[in-house]
Amino acid sequence: MLNLESEDDVLLIGLWGQGGVGKTTLAKALYNDIFRRFEASCFLANVRETSKDSKDLVHLQKKLLSELLLDKGLTVFSVDGGINLIQDRLCHKKVFLVLDDVSDVKQLNVLVGRCEWFGKGSRIIITTRDSHLLTFCGIDKDHICKVKTLEDLEALELFNKHAFLKSEEIVIRRDLVDSALHYANGLPLALEVLGSFLCGRREQEWESTLNKLAKSLDKTINDVLKLSYDGLEDNEKEIFLDIACFFNGQSIEYIMTVLNGCDFAAIIGVQVLVEKSLITKERGTVQMHDLIQLMGMDIVKQECRDDPGRRSRIWLCEDVCDVLSGEMGTDAVKAIVLDLPKTEAISIGPDAFTNMRRLRLLIMINVHNSFQGPIYLPNNLRWFQWPECPFSVLKFPPGPKKLVRLDLCKSNIQVMVDQFKDFKNLKFLCFRECLSMVCMPNLDLTPNLEELDLYGCINLEHAHKSIAYHAKLRFLNLQGCSNLHHLPDVLQPKNLLFLNLTGCTKLQRLPDSPMKRLQIFFVTHLG
């Protein structure tokens, strides 16, 4: 990659990866190995931390010039002056330069703006957490290396090096070592920090330490990882925290749908998180390193250490139970996601969400509640997903609602024809297998609705006339609606692509009018 034999070019090489993965260590090893092959060399460490403003950039330029020219008395008065000096004094020198932990385009522009600033045969290594910076400065893919976490055997070797001294006689159980390795998950920084801390300690201290770390991140590790989060824009911060608290390991398609439904710029936001090494895309899912996830969760917990009802996100079963059963939620709460492995009962009253005026996301999976009356929800709610929801009636304050998705499959919800007045943003409605569904809502009240899923609503008898000419409806699933016996005589939704009438055994006939854009159509067992 360095192609040291070539003397007629200037190469920029990028090393990128998450914080603590070993980019700096690798760059130092390369630097120490080959710096003597060049006329001059310089390792600029911690560029992120030492370039907070223009004065810092001037200081970095001076340091670069002083080391490459061996002139400590050199003076740089301004950023532009530094650029001119670098071009004039280094354009004929074969140099080896390492810029460590670059975080901003400005840093690159004033230190290595163009290859022509340096003499032929020069090599410049840039380490960063943001792959987009490397692309921006024109480094081709063949000269960009992603530094990955260690494989199991490599991780064990590094951990043992720090955790066990050769002269040490203490014997530690293998399961404790395995727990430490699992916690670090191949991240060199974590292996070194944790190994050094545990070195010389007894088994009881190992157990206590690992139990503590399962709940909160080591401060040294957290401080390093959090630098990537601190450099994000607000949109990316919100997306990062949602993934860390709720969606790690889930499908990209689902996550993007939820984030877009919550009015985030999901496509660019997720891409920025990938570029900054905070998440990866693997086999159609979003993956986040365990320690980065812990860091994100800790950011939310720090919003209010003692009261989860004053945090922006709630996801732990105990916290959700306390907040909802005690009606302790506040307008700080933006999202609640509780996905239980099996059905559990939680005491939730009708006013549990009343004070959560900023709540935008509510997902409850395998959550049962004995109360079956109305539930009061805030108008700010954008995504509401609760299979087998026990509440029979949804109540919102007067005024426009922001709800985009409503998924209440297998619930006892009672739907009135004019249920969705003021729901102009609603795009997805799912009432699959809702036995209480006897009438279809008036879709004229939901002009932006794209999907209506009424699969298995066996007590539904009539399709509302509003589906006949709906402008946005793309997906209509009436499969298994065995008592449905009437569709509008004319059915010409402008954008309908999917229609399923399988198992509508009492439906006597289909509408006469052709549906020109229809791509998928299922129909069997008509009456």
From TrEMBL:
- Supply the InterPro entries for this chain: Apaf_helical, Disease_R_plants, LRR_dom_sf, NB-ARC, P-loop_NTPase, WH_DNA-bd_sf, WHD_ROQ1-like
Where does the Disease resistance protein Roq1-like winged-helix domain lie? 233-302
Residues of the NB-ARC domain: 4-167
Q: What are the protein's UniProt keywords?
A: Leucine-rich repeat, Repeat
Q: GO: which molecular function terms?
A: ADP binding
Some GO term, biological process aspect, for this entry: which one? defense response
Protein name as catalogued:
Uncharacterized protein
